[in-house]
């Protein structure tokens, strides 16, 4: 009787069901996290694409297993909600990270549609994992040491002009780019269009790596260039990594320098700071140094916009904000 | 004797030393992969930033441990090479993923400088982990379900105009953006400038999440908007996630819809395809549908460029490539 009263008095209902969105990483068991394995072990029901279910076969004995095909993300989320409402613990498993083009999005979309809130009786946990970006990068060298982005070439849910606009923007601004879903049996022209857009801004010799089935038995790496990218063997299970203007391939490895060469001269076992630069401080062409330089240049915002390939109104606004905004940090930098 | 001959006959020298670049994920032991733990156990020497060494204290008993401060990446790589040359197995440990703004870059830079090649007697292995992007996203909901990018606001090695150009490009083209190294004691204006650039293109109410020390004891989440972002509590250990134009915050969760609403009407437990759309196929506004629409519009490339916010020369080239390039896939799509 007192138990019943206590239950009734709490503001939140006791959690009964649970949905766990589990990222498996690349797929090889040794690259799963402890929490991912524990979440699968804890679950009553496992829902996932057939290939991923097979990867955790040793953990799912005696559990309900619902295998779904690739395109049924919403159905998987609906099934998960259905089981969780019955008080079950459900593991929705994805390769890579469940949050990156994975099941986390459709699951919350379905939950919100059904009127779910985080303080309802169904708990949701997301178990992070290494995404394709990270695992493919680990195999090819160190391509992602500088600013990067991920773009899916799938137009199943995204209008092409949105995708094209993103490709153009990041090609122009020199990101390292990972293309997800680059090609399928039906979608073969998207990669050609991506190449066409990139070639507007980038050197045809820009290094490109194509990684298929990373850390799985059929793993395959291919290095090529932007100019030859569209002719390469690219499929549903490939991730395409396009370097930035500093990325190079050496000894079968793709590496994007972090930028130490902007500040240091490095010889074997030794390094010295370049003239005008200080270890542990912003570059001389960092924000403060750049603001000072453009102020002192005597040039107009229009001239500076051309010189730095930045919008004229941004340069005008940064100049108008004046040096006072950075007094505090300048003082500290001189301490 | 025959053993020695066999050794001499192989083309590659036997590996003696080894450098393992190990990504720990967010830091909590349960989120490390099996391979990351095994690599640390296998190592003779552990090199890393003090905080990360502390996270694996239980695994490093009896090993040489070299703790380094945050700014000494090149020194850490030089030490690793030095030990590996002596035949030692060295684990260079990073939080997150060693490839994402991590130790993989500086290590290969130092190795190449020293004349190392992959077939030399020092083996290099990169052990992928979930990066800050993934772990922060897992805590706030599902912000990365659509195209995203990572930009570091640190100008210690990168000129500000490069960073500003990237911010402007991705703000314009509606990426979800993760800002790494958003602020430090010395660097306080960079986040203000990032906000200024984003507000040129994005709604001031765009959702922003700030995640500090994800999955660690001092973990802290804050939701705000683009307009108030620069006033939020942001530090060295924060990652800032800026949503795209569809991202919303509901029930304390930040979610970017994947785009199912473009194709389906979803009610609880049911879904139906919208008029003109087919399950498992490209959207009617996907590449082929869009090419057909612009061809049939009778509009000039200049007019279409304004309408779709794409470069005029790209539209002209896509039109000039003609429909023949996509005959194969159209035929298949109709099958």
TrEMBL record, chains A, B:
Keywords of the record: Cobalamin biosynthesis, Methyltransferase, S-adenosyl-L-methionine, Transferase
Pathway connected to this protein: Cofactor biosynthesis; adenosylcobalamin biosynthesis
GO biological process, one term: cobalamin biosynthetic process
Signal peptide bounds: none
Pfam family membership, one: TP_methylase
Residue span, Tetrapyrrole methylase domain: 18-229
InterPro entries named among the record's database cross-references: 4pyrrol_Mease (IPR000878), 4pyrrol_Methylase_sf (IPR035996), 4pyrrole_Mease_sub1 (IPR014777), 4pyrrole_Mease_sub2 (IPR014776), Cbl_synth_CobJ/CibH_dom (IPR006363), Precorrin_MeTrfase (IPR051810)
Record-level Gene Ontology MF annotations: methyltransferase activity
UniProt-recorded name of the protein: Precorrin-3B C(17)-methyltransferase
Organism: Oryzomicrobium terrae
Taxonomic classification: Bacteria, Pseudomonadati, Pseudomonadota, Betaproteobacteria, Rhodocyclales
Originating gene: cobJ
